[in-house]
Amino acid sequence: MFLKNSTKYHYEGCEFKNWKGGKCTAFRGIPYAKPPINGLRFKDPQPIENPTTFVDARNDGPDCSSTFGANFSEDCLFLNIYSKSWEPYSENHLRPVIFFIHPGGFYLGTGASSFLGPEYLLEKDIILVTFNYRLGAMGFLNLGTPDIPGNAGLKDQVMALRWVNDNIEYFGGDPKQITLMGYSAGGFSVCLHLVSPMSQGLFQRAVIMSASIPPQSKIPRRNQIELAKKQAKLMGCDMESSSLKTENDRILECLSQFEGLEISKTFRKMFHYGNDNPIYLWLPVIEKKFGQERFLIEDPYKSFKSGRFAKVPLLIGFTTGEFCTSAKDILTNELLLNQFKEEFNRISPICFMYSEHKNEANITQAILSEYLENFKNGLSEKDFENLCSVFSDSIIRFGVEKISNLASKHVNVYPYRFSYEGSTSFLHYPGHKAVEHMDDLMYLFKLWNKTFSPNDPESHIVENMVGFFTKFVENGKPDEDFEYKMQTFVEFGEKVEIRNGPYFEKYQFWENLTKY
What we know:
This protein has 14 helices and 14 strands.
């Protein structure tokens, strides 16, 4: 199957079947930027100057170096395009587009079809785009210098989005109906694209799934040099013995000795406590001016408060048990549990992302009083639900509610809450249940842990999720009966219901506690 666009380039794609057996088309492994290798390593992405006239787009491109996946390469800036059917280009039949940003904490994940299978969404007549962006140090090293000002991984996303705006019509997509959609770190990214000057005008709707910018966190200004130094130290470099004068040069000299895969193998060791705390270690940075395009120019919440963000309809929500696995990891590991109890004043700001907040000590004590009343008597698995709630509220729910409140002054915001307890969960904790982070995503994408068929008892949840989200993609409104108003949200349980009442009951607690 070949596609030829008006500028003489040819793409060879392939057919596959959606979850109901219908024929679909895939164009995979399409390069959207120059390979970020050699002199472009760690730097802002660059457009392809002389594209090849033929692209074999039958297979996924390599994954970006991370802690999860296969077929890694630093030459990894590729995207995939899926459609329910393929027809020659016609401006009279262009379909709405989902541009999906994958999850993974900015240090793992991929847009590959083995990670994000399109089979469920492609029941609908839409175009789906998934893609890779650089991760960990490879995409988020920021030295605050003209060469490496930061946010390279986020600028990869902008580059892919620009490519889609320029080319998607040749694949049957409407460049004037692009929905920017992301999950977890991908949803965090959508929050940032809403305020980034680089992304304005490139999308018409936005979906933020199980993500926010934690309001209590501090977005770094100019660089995260301590993180860069730690990365160099983990690679075994003796920074003091280098003949280079500046610290930045010594860091780059160190990292240049190693392949991206070697560096990514140390990503887990970068975290400050446990398996992955803080949840977001590599953060966006407010860039210093060097004449470059800046992805972030001010604190995102300042932009939201001032109305300086993309005025597009917003669908935003979370599951009822976000990051409960993080709570389980602490309660089931004796070493981590002892550290958590003995060093709570140090560990709590790390886990719940309020390090460097001016009210850090007060926040710590308030968390103990509000959530962990049994702390002095010793924590046990009986405290699982409460500890889970601290992770959920601090990392996701507080920010979701705050962004919803601020954005709703200018645009229609449609909040949702996913509470369906399915047969499969990303939480593995015998005797305990929760609707964990990503438990909803498995009903939109074919993930590695569960595959649904039309005869599956839970197939109606797939139908509900796909129908709800694609209606928003098509119309900018998730349901004909959902009239936007404050204190109204959609509940995804066994059924999809519109609810009235508090969306996040502890919002005011966090808002009062973390005001600067």
